[in-house]
Design a protein that fits this description.
The structure is a single chain. Strands 1-2-3-4-5-6-7-8 form an 8-stranded parallel barrel, surrounded by 6 helices. The chain is of the alpha/beta class. The protein has 11 helices and 8 strands. 38% of the residues are buried. The two termini are 36 Å apart. The protein has one domain: Alpha-Beta Barrel (TIM Barrel). It binds SN-glycerol-3-phosphate. The site of SN-glycerol-3-phosphate (G3P) has 11 residues, from helix 7.
Length: 218
């Protein structure tokens, strides 16, 4: 399973990239706005910090505007992946960009029908938003299960399921259990994955017992 950091905060991304566990980054207009910095400056920095796919979302809603913005974003770095909304224009732009060899992440996916369209449009990734479905009383992980079941019926579908809108470690574990290709998560969730109180307690006990021996290894 690939782990992407869902953030535009270059300090958080740099910190997590140093762990060797980060395979890519996803941003969106809200995450970029939160930085208070110029988009292209942030994008350039992120693309230097992480060698994997860096999703940068267009803000146009028409096909021509999406393609125009995508061209500008693709000039930033070779690992830029264009993020397009799951709308008729987004799917048409996705097809055009995929035909040119550009990687596209089709985002704001909330149904299996939408995910089928993303695959038919040649998306490299589809981003189903599990947290936002959970937020309104739907079962976000059921959508992931449905999409993966459908995609497995069609070997010609090359689209990877990029589980997004992750709220906690169990979303990551369940996504992995289902066989999702990617989990994109806020920095805090990525840091939470490693934590367990019994690990901390066990290590503390090991070190305390070792200290009593008076020995040193290095
Ligand atoms: O990449 C999509 C993700 O940023 C959305 O997450 O928490 O705004 O639902 P959230």
């Amino acid at each position: 399973m690939k782990f992407f950091v869902d953030s535009a905060d270059v300090h958080e991304i740099a910190d997590l990239a140093a762990t060797g566990l980060v395979d890519g980054v996803t941003t969106n207009p809200s995450l970029v706005a939160k930085t208070g910095r110029p988009f292209f400056e942030v994008l350039e920095e992120i693309c230097r910090l992480v060698s994997g796919p860096v999703s940068a979302e267009v803000t146009a809603t028409d096909v021509a505007g999406m393609l125009r913005e995508a061209s500008r974003l693709l000039e930033v770095a070779p690992n830029v992946c264009i993020k397009l909304p799951l709308t008729p224009a987004g799917l048409q732009a996705c097809r055009a960009l995929a035909d040119r060899g550009a990687k596209v992440n089709v985002t704001l996916c909330f149904s299996p029908a939408q995910a089928i369209l993303a695959a038919k449009a040649g998306a490299a990734f589809v981003s189903p938003f599990v947290g936002r479905l959970d937020d309104v009383g739907h079962d976000g992980m059921r959508l992931i299960s449905d999409i993966l079941q459908i995609y497995r019926n069609y070997p010609n579908f090359r689209t990877e399921v990029l589980v997004a809108s992750i709220r906690h470690p169990l979303h990551v574990v369940e996504a992995a259990r289902l066989g999702a290709h990617v989990a994109t998560m806020p920095p805090a969730v990525l840091r939470q994955l490693v934590r367990h109180p019994l690990t901390d307690k066990g290590l503390e006990a090991f070190l305390a017992d070792w200290a009593k021996t008076g020995q040193r290894i290095g």
